[in-house]
Structure to design on (454 residues):
């Protein structure tokens, strides 16, 4: 029982667990039924990534939705941002995406999308989970069951929406050679076609949609060795790496240098503000480089809690067009839709490259330089709160942000300690102007965390 409680995560990021341990077909069907009732038992979009457990859980989700009178519209395997767009396109009551995103392959999850095409916020998630725990749903009699509907063209609609918002002809004219790492996720079905439609010649790796992740699924620089080699071997102008569900993106420059995911946000903010200055919203785990870039355009940066929905809600409140989550390379461009989207990120990167006479490495060198590194420690939610409380006492005389864990602001960087929304871990992230300073911060605070006895 303790093991199940330890691996099941309920949050605004959805419900995540290890398949066959804490995340079961029975639990999945019950959660789907609860969501169906919560959204009003209308049309609900259903999709998944390529994980081998996805098909089983998809059937459980469909059964749960049908049981409460919903009409599931099945997209199959598509990127998470495609589902968000389809919810609004079809005026659905909501959507369920079966994906654990960057988590290891043994994990899977349900992500819940509201009728506006954005994820449930913390208040809405708590309402949903409260209904779930009460467990007294009304199920439909046989004559109230709806028919299943299917949509096989969802990504094409997503792609064309992006193409309407970018300088597609300038990109096509450059005929870029691009390397692509699909992580054997949803990108294996769509990303090569997407890039070829932009006139690119594509060299792809890990491009089988079998859900067998041949590298760690989180597209961190340290996990992209093969993509870096591919860029250099084939003399590519740029390389792109996805996570399994296609909402995160990390780039590799033309020299084969894998960039920190923070660079994805910094570069897209630079590109968008150049044409359309305005407020920027990022989460507190995002590099201070974004502040430096925004300041150069006379624009203000606002910080939100970690989590896509937290950034999105603040973007709408501040009327921000560009933002995201630097820690994961999750770009949010509200002109298209309010959600993280790696296809938007790739399109904006190629547009930036097409409109400049510089290489990707030269463009990357022009943005403010910070070193951001992180570590994580196995930790229960309760213990994470206690550790953060202890650090609050120790660092009360520093300039701190406390609305999501503890961020300690320093003259040339910061330290962030917070409990994860997606794993039973405590995350430590540090940033500094110099690499050796960042490494020292990570070492010193890691040791301090390990020595705390709660």
């Amino acid at each position: 029982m303790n093991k199940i409680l330890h691996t099941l995560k309920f949050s605004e990021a959805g419900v995540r667990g290890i398949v066959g341990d804490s995340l079961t077909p029975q639990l999945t069907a019950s959660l789907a039924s609860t969501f169906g009732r919560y959204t009003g038992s209308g049309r609900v979009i259903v999709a998944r990534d390529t994980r081998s457990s996805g098909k089983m859980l998809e059937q459980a989700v469909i059964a749960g939705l049908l049981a409460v009178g919903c009409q599931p519209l099945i997209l199959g395997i598509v990127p998470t941002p495609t589902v968000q767009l389809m919810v609004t396109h079809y005026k659905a009551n909501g959507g369920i995406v079966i994906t654990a995103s960057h988590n290891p392959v043994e994990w899977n999850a349900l992500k819940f999308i509201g009728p506006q095409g954005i994820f449930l916020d913390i208040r809405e998630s708590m309402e949903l989970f409260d209904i779930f725990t009460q467990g007294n749903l009304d199920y439909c009699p046989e004559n109230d069951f709806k028919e299943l509907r299917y949509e096989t063209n969802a990504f094409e609609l997503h792609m064309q929406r992006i193409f309407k918002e970018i300088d597609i002809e300038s990109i096509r004219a450059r005929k870029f050679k691009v390397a692509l790492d699909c992580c054997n996720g949803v990108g294996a079905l769509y990303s090569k076609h997407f890039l070829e439609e932009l006139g690119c010649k594509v060299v792809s790796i890990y491009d089988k949609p079998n859900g067998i992740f041949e590298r760690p699924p989180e597209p961190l620089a340290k996990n992209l060795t093969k993509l870096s080699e591919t860029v250099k071997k084939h003399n590519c102008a740029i390389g792109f790496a996805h996570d399994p569900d296609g909402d995160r993106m990390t780039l590799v420059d033309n020299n084969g240098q894998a960039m920190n995911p923070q660079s994805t946000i910094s570069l897209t903010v630079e590109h968008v503000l150049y044409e359309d200055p305005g407020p920027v919203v990022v989460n507190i785990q995002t590099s201070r480089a974004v502040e430096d870039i925004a300041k150069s355009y006379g624009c203000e940066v606002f910080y939100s809690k970690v989590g896509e929905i937290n950034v999105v809600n603040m973007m709408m409140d501040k009327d921000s067009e560009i933002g995201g989550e630097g820690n994961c390379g999750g770009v949010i461009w509200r002109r298209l839709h309010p959600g993280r989207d790696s296809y938007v990120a790739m399109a904006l990167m190629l547009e930036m490259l097409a409109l400049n006479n510089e290489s990707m490495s030269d463009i990357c060198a022009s943005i403010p330089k910070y070193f951001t590194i992180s570590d994580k420690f196995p930790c229960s939610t309760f213990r994470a709160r206690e550790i953060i409380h202890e650090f609050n006492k120790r660092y009360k005389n520093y300039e701190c942000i406390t609305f999501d864990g503890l961020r300690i602001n320093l003259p040339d960087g910061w330290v962030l300690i917070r409990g994860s929304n997606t794993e039973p871990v405590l995350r430590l992230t540090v940033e500094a102007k110099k690499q050796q300073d960042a490494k020292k911060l990570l070492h010193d605070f890691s040791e301090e965390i390990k020595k705390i006895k709660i």
